[in-house]
Design a protein that fits this description.
- The complex is a heterodimer of chains A (325) and B (324).
- Chain A is of the alpha/beta class.
- Chain A is built from twelve helices and seven strands.
- Chain A has a single domain, classed as Thiamin diphosphate (ThDP)-binding fold, Pyr/PP domains (Rossmann fold, 3-Layer(aba) Sandwich).
- Chain A has helices at residues 5-30, 45-53, 68-74, 78-85, 119-133, 151-162, 182-185, 193-197, 210-225, 254-261, 265-275, 281-304, and strands at 60-62, 139-144, 167-173, 176-177, 180-181, 202-206, 231-236.
- Chain B has ten helices and 14 strands.
- In chain B, the strands form three sheets. In chain B, strands 3-2-4-5-7-6-12 form a seven-stranded mixed beta sheet, with helices on both faces. Chain B has a five-stranded mixed beta sheet with strand order 9-11-10-13-14, with helices on both faces.
- In chain B, strand 4, helix 4 and strand 5 (112-117) form a beta-alpha-beta unit.
- The longest helix of chain B has 15 residues, at 6-20.
- Classes of the chains: A alpha/beta (325), B alpha/beta (324).
- Bound molecules: thiamine diphosphate.
- Thiamine diphosphate binds next to strand 2 and strand 4 of chain A.
- The site of thiamine diphosphate has 17 residues of chain A, from strand 2 and strand 4.
Amino acid sequence: MDIKREDLLQLYYYLKLTRRLEDRVTSLYHQGKILGGAWTSNGTEAVSVGYGCALERNDIAAPYFRDMGVFLIRGITAKRIMAQYFGKKTGVTGGKEGNVHIGDLNFGVFGFPSHLADNYPVGTGAALAFKIRGEKRVAVACTGDGGTSRGDFHEAMNFAAARKLPIVFICNNNQYAYSTPLRLQMAIKDISERARAYGMPSKIVDGNNVVAVYTAAKEAYDIARNGGGPTFIECKTMRMHGHSEHDSAKYVPRELLEEWKKKDPILNMEKYLLENNHAKKNDIDGIDSRVKNEIEEAETFAIESAYPESEDGMKGLYATPIVGE
Amino acid sequence: MKEITYLEAIKEALDEEMSRDASVFILGEDVGVYGGAFRVTEGFFDKYGEWRVLDTPLAESGFTGAAIGAALVGMRPVVEMQFADFISCAFDQLVNVAAKNHYRWGAATPIVVRAPYGGNIHGGAFHSQCIEGFFYNVPGLKIVAPATAYDAKGLLKAAIRDNDPVIYCEHKYLYRRIKDSIPEEDYVVPIGKARIALDGKDVSIITYGAMVHTALEAATVLKDNGVSCEILDLRTILPLDKKSILDTVKKTNKVIVLHEQTKTGGVGAEVSALISEHCFDYLDGPIIRVAAPDTPVPYSAQMEEAFIPQAKDVISAVEKLIRY
Ligand SMILES: Cc1ncc(C[n+]2csc(CCOP(=O)(O)OP(=O)(O)O)c2C)c(N)n1
């Protein structure tokens, strides 16, 4: 697949933006400046950036919590996300929710419910609506390797395949679910084998190669958009931080991390761009400083934003409030 | 006006809403060609096609989640649980996704989950349960439970037009047993409003669903004994119509709360607490709950009859209360 230079640079930009935003969140977390926990996608950014960039404007993403790239790509700004971490009124959920528990229908991205794999059926529902209405739109849903053990994963895959719905299922297989390694999560080697049980084509891609993820996703979206039904894409990668930033992840062998460190998705992409003459060093530097500014501005915005009022927590339960309540 | 059964009322509401609004569709097990386990959607498949009367795999969490996703992009799905009992498999999607979407991130989730519930049909522990209690502690959901054919139609229409997730508890025992005269023209019964099913002055019986009829039966007997009962049919049980509840208490000063759901932690507990918090001074006696005992629903006729509150149970509770 031929990818335009500007699209390649965009992939790089979002990789950097995701990394830098989450790195900053990590520091702020350790300084005790943000509320609640901090989960990052460190080392696996190419998954969300790849499948997110391959979407069309009208498509729907139903992500999970290591999909920061998707939220940014869809149009939720770093400012709003940073404010979210601080629990500010200007955050994506106005302080109602924390960290990556965000979503915004204005940008075609569903909220992430903590319960893993819940967004597999929910994403499937968007695809069902597109099919019923005859719209040429697709949905994409993502979860981690651990999430693929849940019934909702299987129920969604089965339903989508039986009805040939326009959805692509992504798995961020980063080898660990919190501390649980793959071998205790399942008896199979490749999660993609599960797709076969539902009569669904699948693909294994290098989850540290953003171009590979982007290409596989784009191809799968095309198939889905043209009535070919769902595809499952397993992105093999490695979670380089702990489950969340409080977790030192001692249970992961250091050698394994050393090995994966060499495959860093961002360095990978930078090298690819330079070696293939898609970018020069100063293009890369330009993107880096743009990203740096954006994150600094986001932090300033978040710090300067007001907190919500305590009464705000009592509002917005219903979309149709009961009259006379 | 025309006379139709409770089941026909549900069917008419679905049919009319589906013709009125192309975003309304039905999904669930065997709802298509077969027309649903209780034949509520009989004929719909031919009329609306396989994509609007959609047979799903046997996977309640999966298809409830899918209904939520479809609702998020502009559809108004009506999920049919084959029996309300199986809603437990969709608990997570309803509690953690549907109920919290609007509060958490401002996204409306207009889904209706039809739950054919309740006993008295010799269905045993897995086909007779009252499921409203499972969801009673979940802010963000609405739960309705019509007792009449009129309300069955009007509440279902209101539920479909509502922008929040609504669990619609339709009592299986009432399907073909009760009839009402209903208007020819379109109407809705607003969510959140109780109704006085019987006007009275001595005792209030607060109830909903099939128990409204049990209460009426008891009231007829009690009337002959000189006791005038007021029956408040809650219709919406989440959120409760507080005003109507407090009004009837202030009028009669004596309260029975009656439901088919098991007693502990049920709707009756909530109604009782509400009354003591807000109008304790109006009470002339204890609030008495008449409810099913805290066991699974038994199968055998004698046991099931003893399990489900009967008119005689209501009568003896009223007789006890009236002595205060
Ligand atoms: C259903 C459910 N159970 C437990 C949790 C708590 N939890 C949060 S993340 C996580 C591990 C997730 O592992 P995986 O799906 O592999 O995703 P990863 O973190 O590796 O990206 C657990 C157990 C949860 N969010 N959802």
